[in-house]
Amino acid sequence: MHIYRMKPDGSAKEQLTFDEYNNWFPHISPDGKWMVFISFLPDTDPNDHPPYKRVMLRLMPVAGGAPKVLAYLYGGQGTLNVASWSPDSKQIAFVSDAEKSE
User: Fold this and answer.
1) Structure pTM?
2) Which of 15, 47, 69, 84 is the most buried (most CB within 10 A)?
3) Across-strand partners of 56?
4) Closest CA to 22 of 4, 46, 6
5) Is the Cα torsion angle 72, 74, 75, 80 positive or negative in sign?
């Protein structure tokens, strides 16, 4: 599970993430410079989108580059389901399920 981008017509597919994590649900900042996404651990089934797993919230430039971990949390499905960026591209909102237990 990796993150790709492509042109609106489906051409020019380009892979953006290249690590061992299962990267999912990217959100582009309003200024178009950044992307925030969830990274599941490698043992997560890529066909599953569980709601309560150890995940990382990561940030990377849309132009490419190494992702930076913003937070380690319990989350997954539901963590970034809405427009997550502030209008000035300086803050993000997300949901963590820290109160639950496995």
Assistant:
1) 0.85
2) 84
3) 39, 72
4) 46
5) negative
